[in-house]
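Ticket #4471: structure export looks truncated?
Reporter: QA, pipeline team
Priority: medium

Steps to reproduce: submit the single chain below to the structure queue and open the exported record.
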Amino acid sequence: MKKAVFLDRDGVINEVLTNRVKFVNKTKDFYFLPRVPEAIKKLNKYFDYIFVVTNQGGVGLGYMKESKLQKIHEHMMKELKKDGAIIHEVVYCPHKPKSGCDCRKPNSKLIVDLGEKYNIDLSKSYMVGDTDTDIIAGKRAGTKGVFLGERDPLADAIFPDLISAANWIIEDAQGVTYKSYKKG
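Actual output as written to the record:
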């Protein structure tokens, strides 16, 4: 079976709710967070797949069309590829928040479906996110949870950014204890 890292998008890969951009509804509003391409490229060397798993309620709320969201994801993947970083697939929940669907995180359907499609051992995989819904979705699917931010009691590890999380994920996957991570 294969191993994967599942990444949330907004707040993990790209800026959101910053001085420069509130929400990403157009490709011109998409800005990578520092060292994200480097982190993904690093993860590509040790994992069979890197996926993006994201809630995009703006579609269901009418702030953007699904075709525009797909263009944003194509742009993201193309820009990452220029730096040698590969995202194998992007999946998203387009439904409104509180719609009750199975695919919106904290539900785990998107992760579980990717696991089945690509023959992934979810117990040897990781979900990286910046909200508790990301960590809960990963845990429900059977992955380890890595939180980017200050504190999350459900996370296996907490880091300020994707590059430091990537280092821990790689070492943890190899059975090495990485000393500088903090548990919330």
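Status: closed, not a bug. The export was complete when the record was re-opened. Leaving a note from the reviewer for reference: The mean pLDDT is 94.
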